[in-house]
Amino acid sequence: MLKESLLYLARQERIRQFVITNPAARNTARRFVAGETLDDAISATKPLNARRIAVSLDHLGENVSDAREANATANEYVTTLKRISAEGAEANISIKLTALGLDIDMALCQANLERVLCEAHKRDIFVRVDMEGSDYTQRTLDLVLDAHKRYPNVGTVVQTMLYRTPSDIETLIEQGVRVRLVKGAYMEPPTVAFPKKEDVDEQYLRLLYRLLERGVYPALATHDEKLIAAAKRYAQEKQISRVRFEFQMLYGIRRDLQKQLVAEGYRLRLYVPFGKAWYPYYMRRLAERPANVLFILKNIFRH
């Protein structure tokens, strides 16, 4: 119920206006979002790299409805790639296809994606195409699989909450596409996704094993200590080297666990979002864990 309520609020313009103009809410959002500018993102990246934590930079924004805005977003991704290269940062980028015009025109989106991938390929930087709601799953996979034929530096994300994901993973493994495994943060109907958390967790575990054995440098994105422990055990039992996969977490969440993984010699990458369009992302993070909501409420009532 909490998740449904927060995702509903994420779509309400009046609530959005209140949150983005409320100083307390903006300050607490900085726990999960590096800031509104690329400079903010780079400033957040440097100390993480110094602690042996890699980064995936994400310029927030999605569902653009104007071709000029989609082209501008592609330009911003290109600028981010150039900045990563210039700074020598241990970072790649995450991108959303709806920010590149997927809702407007498939050809427009594909052209913008190609432009970003071409720039990334020249600079030897990996690009992760994020997975959005289930309405976009097939189109996202189609574009990624097609682009991967020309740009091996592109990968994508699969959501274990969806029934279709085991089949999608098989396709991606067969094509040699790098996969980030996540549970999924979108509200989906029970016709396409598991409604119960325990079922999502069970599927995550099954797919985690499959990716560790057969995937191309899989990214295991979770803050769930039980799933992380299971991944460690399985890798050890199967003698899977720690350089063959990485754990991924969100910026600002479970810093204690982040520190522990690095100390144990595991590879870790943090998803570091930035940009002015931070509100939908922020609300999805609150929806994922009740502890996040308590953190926000405590900070708001201190002001």
Protein topology:
Elements: H1 2-9, H2 13-21, H3 23-29, H4 38-50, E1 54-59, H5 67-87, E2 91-95, H6 106-122, E3 127-129, H7 137-148, E4 154-159, H8 165-174, E5 179-182, H9 197-214, E6 219-221, H10 225-237, E7 246-250, H11 255-263, E8 268-274, H12 279-288, H13 290-300
Parallel strand pairs: 1-2, 1-8, 2-3, 3-4, 4-5, 5-6, 6-7, 7-8
Helix pairs in contact: 1-12, 3-13, 5-6, 9-10, 12-13
Shape: globular
User: Can you tell me the CATH architecture of the largest domain?
Assistant: Alpha-Beta Barrel
CATH topology of the largest domain: TIM Barrel
The helix content, as a percent range, equals 40-55%
What percent of residues are in strands? 5-15%
Q: Compute the number of helices.
A: 13
**Distance N to C terminus:** 28 Å
Regions with little confidence, pLDDT below 50 for 5+ residues: 295-303
**Most strands sheet:** 8 strands, parallel, barrel
**Average pLDDT number:** 89
Domain count: the total is 2
Number of E-type strands: 8
Structural class: alpha/beta
SSE string, helix = H, strand = E?
A: HHHHEHEHEHEHEHEHEHEHH
Regarding CATH, which class of the largest domain? Alpha Beta
What is the alpha-carbon Rg in Å? 18 Å
Strand arrangement within the widest β-sheet reads 1-2-3-4-5-6-7-8
